[in-house]
# Entry
Amino acid sequence: MVNCPQPMQTLIQCLSGLPGIGEKTAIRLALFIMNQPEVDAMQLARSIIDVREKVSLCRKCFNFSDSDLCSICSNTKRDPGVLCVVESPGDLMAIEKTSHYRGRYHVLQGVIAPLEGIGPDQLKIRELVQRIDIDQIKEVILATNPTVNGNATALYISQQLLVSGVKITRIAQGVPSGGDIEYIDEVTLRNALDGRREMK
# Structure
């Protein structure tokens, strides 16, 4: 660790714990924060506290929200009959950036990953099955990542939903295999949504 005051060492350590941030980048960020006007640094600190205190999960779709229902679930202009199932709020944000999808979402909060001890019961799959009848869903778009675990999760969900008679589609594999939806460009995501196919 660099030779600096303890509060800065603590900040550098916290920043280097963020994804994709190594020690050198953490040091640059800490120095940047130290050189900012106090009001800007305090605003950054307050926003971190606010997001932890005020943001929770939407009771219906499990997206991040600062109220009981997120802005998508409470938007009456969205198609309530089409449900896009994603792994994480980051995936939802990526699809929303395309401005192409006008239905609603269901966030699983992960994927089935047996080697990590994550099974269906640790995800929001039971809640998804319940929503089909309650919300009179006509189509479920399975938009999990095209990874081994993402594909296995999509297959498991499609099997769980077969008895409901709902139309089940899977996003087209224009999304590269092994990739994360959160980091895919908008054009590729639009094509993937347009080219979705029914799972049998």
